[in-house]
Design goal:
By secondary structure, this protein is α+β, with helices and mostly antiparallel strands. The protein has two domains: about 1-280, Orthogonal Bundle (2-methylcitrate dehydratase PrpD), CATH 1.10.4100; about 290-430, 2-methylcitrate dehydratase PrpD (60s Ribosomal Protein L30, Chain: A, 2-Layer Sandwich), CATH 3.30.1330. About 45% of the residues lie in helices and about 10% in strands. The protein has helices spanning about 20-30, 40-55, 60-70, 95-105, 125-135, 140-160, 175-185, 190-200, 215-235, 255, 295-305, 325-330, 345-350, 355-365, 375-380, 380-385, 395-405, 445-455, 460-470, 480-485, and strands spanning about 1-10, 75-80, 115, 120, 265-270, 315-325, 390-395, 415-420, 425-430. The strands form three sheets. A four-stranded mixed β-sheet has the order 7-6-8-9. Strand 3 and strand 4 (about 120) form a beta hairpin. Helix 1 runs parallel beside helix 7, helix 2 (about 40-55) packs parallel to helix 18 and helix 7 (about 175-185) packs antiparallel against helix 8 (about 190-200). The radius of gyration is 22 Å and the shape is globular. This is 2-methylcitrate dehydratase. InterPro entries: MmgE/PrpD_sf (IPR036148), MmgE/PrpD_sf_1 (IPR042183), MmgE/PrpD_sf_2 (IPR042188), MmgE_PrpD (IPR005656), MmgE_PrpD_C (IPR045337), MmgE_PrpD_N (IPR045336). Keywords: Lyase. Monomer.
Length: about 500
Amino acid sequence: MVEHLNVRTYKSDEDLPRENQLAHRIAEVAADPVEVTPEVVDMVINRIIDNASVAAASLTRKPVVSARSQAEAHPYTPGSTVFGLPADQTASPEWAAWANGVAVRELDFHDTFLAAEYSHPGDNIPPILAVAQHAGKTGADLVRGIATGYEIQIDLVKAISLHEFKIDHVAHLGPSAAAGIGTLLGLDVETIFQAVGQALHVTTATRQSRKGEISSWKAHAPAFAGKMAVEAVDRAMRGETSPTPIYEGEDGVIAWLLGGPERVYDVALPAAGEAKRAILDSYTKEHSAEYQAQAWIDLARKLHSEHPELVDPANVTRIVLHTSHHTHFVIGSGAGDPQKYDPTASRETLDHSIPYIFTVALQDGAWNHVDSYLPSRAGREDTVTLWNKVSTVEDAEWTRRYHSNDVTEKAFGGRVEIDLANGERIVDEIAVADAHPLGARPFQRADYIQKFRTLAAGVLEEAEIERFLALAERTNELTADEVRQLTIVAKPGLYADVETPKGLF
């Protein structure tokens, strides 16, 4: 049974026992030595492979090169491995978490969970893995820590909306990563409590990172939260304390950032002795695009096959996607961002433009993490013409299903209406992506492995691909020394033509 906690603002002269504070309850969940169930172990392994897949595909991308060069400037022993570097070239754990976090997040291609808030819970893995390697923890310890990270982030995402108040979703990641590290290290409740409070305090920021001209900071923001979580745990272990109560204080997060003193949140967390199973509610991406675009890509591919005439913009009068509030206002025409229709926009911006994504998937009948974002692809004349005929509108029923807590009806798609120049209309709909647990082709271990092989091809040597997969598939059994090998090493010469930027370090 879960336990519900009503979280609200308390005046400084009101009595709020520490054990009733949200940060303390998070710490209690993290410190609970409950066993990890076999299905959760399997899913943790899937997500470790998934993270490595998208990291491999991003090793030569500029933000990743930049973050990796910063980690290289902070060598440390024992330290932690950095994706793309030799396993014996270790960095201080917070900097390894930073570099690996950027690599995982750069392509926006790993797992997701959407409820009251949005999240990529796989962002918990880089900081937890970095600390596991540095601290000499086993694979079983690592799995326990990751299960906690997922549990806390998903529980917070179910209960507390950040985007409603224009706060970036990584404000839930700082506390979850700190909690996961606390579980990994077997820390006591008080230490984890202080780390959670510190991590939250330094990871709240506005959502401008995902608005308008979206910059490379979109990939750095969750990595920064992970780095801050590592540092918060370090400080807490040294006896340093955090602002208390961090959520409920008169000048706390709820009072000034999340709705004000009158706002009350119902947060459900596992009861003592209850297994942490939230990772099973999350889902990964088959396509490198914002999660709300996954189902639309699959529908566009289907329409490409069934109605080849749609490829030519001359045959189409307009395309309207009837969808949820989030899809319309964040990645749709409801955002009011002209950049979403700009063929010269950044990859990060196009990744958050459902009109662009639907157009390209409709014309190509496919989606590729590189080719679909090329400037030459975005600027194609027939694409731009068709793209400008695509718009979104909010549909109340799709919004309701988007926010439903019933996993059997929760949906991230919508209905498309296409008016043709000959007067005909094509109507179709999709609720969830094909790869979703309730989709046409739910992702299984073999799919995660294939995703890794595909994205690592040409980046890692074949022997390295096999070495990593053999290790990852038995994560729960790894010794501390083997955990230190849980990384990916770039093939020789991969960085030969890659320019490493210079900074302060």
